[in-house]
Amino acid sequence: MKASDAAYEVLKSAGEPLHKDELTKRMIEGGLWQSEGRTPSATVTSILGTEIAELGAASRFVRREPNVFDLRRDDDPIPALEAPNDGPKAWMFQANPKRHDLLAGIAAHATEPWAMNQHRDHAAQGDRVQFFLSGDQAGIYAVGQITSTAYRAEKANEFGEWKVDIVYEALVDPPLLRNPDIAADPVLAAFAPFMGRMGTNFPIPPSVAARLAVVLAARLKPVKPAAGAVPFSQSAHDLNRSVETARHVAKVDLLAHLRALEPGQFQHVIRLLLDALDYEDVVVTGQSGDRGIDIRAVLRYRGIAEVPTFVQAKRYAAGNNVDGATVGRLRGSLPVEAHGIVITTSDFTKQARAEAVASGLKPIALINGPALVELLVDLGIGVEKRQVEVIRFDPTKLDSDLAQ
């Protein structure tokens, strides 16, 4: 078993973060992996660190703190990606043929929007895309590029609300199938998403992207260019990268600032959040003897529903995670008709997450630091949003103007 797969099995079984030394010890003692080197924990750290750097949010792993690894969750922050310094990144966009007919889509139109939820802060105009179909005949069936930054669609569909526009440039004919084509190539086979992993968007490491360019060259059959297809622009690419960096820095700075607030100040931030989410009668009650309740509010819906909501706000440092006892105490303080929420600037232990959804008990909603920041940014709390006019040549717009 590969070191990364062994680490995954150990962390899955542990259900909590592990220090590199303890992780390596369990991998070896469990007979899952053996190292010929004299510093096996350093080898594990290097292998997991490489996957995190190359795959970003598509990695199975996350580094909770120096030398401490855990399995990635959907609400973990989107990390920065390693990318070529002088050009666009490469992506694998995966479709399930039972839910999306990729080839019919290409035949009908050479451009369309694609879901880009987890990695939306990393997508940029000009990034290359390999379109991969899962299923019995899994493989790469087309190539293209991203022609926009990520944007929120007016209406979310089954694939989510965040999209990027793409243009199909060529069919891969014959398709580059997982078996036997990809599996027989050591470089391509080493990229785990090609060999089977659920997900829509995966960043492709530069070494794999370079190998793909060579392997696919003789198989590409150009698709008729879409009317108005926008060619790659270095200036637009650089602008998108700057926007990506600014969003990431703003989120990091906002979370750090929240962690430095006094508890009372943090409670008033949560009050602002609940107000923005259309809760009513929001009152900060946090004080000694508050039985674990810091904010009270009511969520009303058109006279049909009225849900009293009790919130506990934990302004904790990174690594000081909320435990199960805290969740249990909040539940014990709730009236029968009330809903409970725990909001923290850190995270929750495995026991806390289990306690929140314990069978037969009232469920408690949990919002950790990254999820809190996403909410605040979306609602414009603690951040300044500036609208910048960006001018880009659009051939279809010129044709439309001439036709008038």
Topology:
Blueprint (H helix, E strand, L loop, with lengths): L2 H12 L3 E2 H10 L10 H16 L5 E5 L2 E4 L18 E6 L6 H7 L2 E5 L12 E6 L5 E8 L4 E7 L2 E18 H5 L3 H4 L11 E4 L1 H11 L3 E3 L11 H27 L2 H14 L3 E5 L10 E7 L3 E10 L9 H10 L5 E6 L5 H7 L7 E4 L1 H11 L15 H9 L1
Helix pairs in contact: 1-2, 2-3, 10-11
Task: Describe, in plain words, how this protein is organized in 3D.
The chain has helices at 3-14, 20-29, 40-55, 102-108, 178-182, 186-189, 206-216, 234-260, 263-276, 324-333, 350-356, 369-379, 395-403; strands at 18-19, 61-65, 68-71, 90-95, 111-115, 128-133, 139-146, 151-157, 160-177, 201-204, 220-222, 280-284, 295-301, 305-314, 339-344, 364-367. It is an alpha+beta fold and 404 residues long. The termini are far apart.
Question: What attributes characterize this protein structure?
Answer:
single chain, 404 residues, alpha+beta, ph1033 like fold, Trna Endonuclease, Chain: A, domain 1, 3 domains, eight-stranded mixed β-sheet, five-stranded mixed β-sheet
What is the terminal-to-terminal distance? Answer: 65 Å
Return the average pLDDT rounded to an integer. 85
- Helix-and-strand structural type: alpha+beta
CATH topology group of the largest domain: ph1033 like fold
How large is the radius of gyration?
24 Å
Task: Report the sheet with the most strands, covering strand number, pairing sense and barrel closure.
Answer: 8 strands, mixed
Number of domains: 3
Question: Which CATH class of the largest domain?
Answer: Alpha Beta
Could you name the ranges where pLDDT drops below 50 across 5 or more consecutive residues?
82-86
Overall geometric form: globular
| CATH homologous superfamily label of the largest domain | ph1033 like domains
- Annotated CATH architecture of the largest domain: Roll
Topology as a string of helices (H) and strands (E): HEHHEEEHEEEEEHHEHEHHEEEHEHEHH
Question: Which assembly state applies to the chains in this document?
Answer: single chain
What percent strand? 15-25%
Q: How many β strands by DSSP?
A: 16
Proportion of residues in helical segments: 25-40%
Q: Provide a count of the helices.
A: 13
